Amino acid sequence: MAELFGTVATAVGAFAATNIDDFAILTILFIDSRAGGLRRGHIVVGQYLGFGILLAISGAAASGLVVVPARWVGLLGLLPLAASVLGFRKAASLRNDDEEQQVVSNGLLSVIAVTVANGGDNLAVYILMFHQQAPTDTAITIIVFLVLLAVWCVGAVLIGTHSRVVSALIKVRRWLVPAVYAIIGFVILIRSGIFTR
Fold this sequence. Notes:
Layout: H1 2-34, H2 40-62, H3 70-73, H4 78-93, H5 107-117, H6 120-132, H7 135-160, H8 163-169, H9 173-191
Helix pairs in contact: 1-6, 1-7, 1-9, 2-5, 2-6, 2-7, 4-5, 4-9
């Protein structure tokens, strides 16, 4: 029982440490959904699909089936940068009376791309964790991660659909999501050291 508790506690700590930035992104996306942008279903499904891709890569790499060179992980930053360019183009083409139109096209794909691209730190932690764990502990860890991802989504919905938060950001929301994507992309590229290679 103590071993199970230790595995769960480790999983909770690893998830929280690697997904604080993801919570902020989720909140922004749900603000956009409240204002008529991305659909909530796309955000949740995109999060789960993107996170599932990260878990699959981590599991494969931990098993020695796939090698993930750090220099290539940094290139994932290009995905949210591409999404930001599309978002800025769409935002620039909208008139004030078009505010209700969706700003970021291909909402589901954009969320998946940002989730995967923002998962460099997830990969670094999860690959090592899965490599050191027994298969049963890895299965427990993945279940905890998936449950906590639902908690993350609920928390982000509560904050991102709060009327005061939305009303404060409604006027800038068509620029907000692409700006967040751009920041994420640049941070990923800078952290990876790709500019210094």
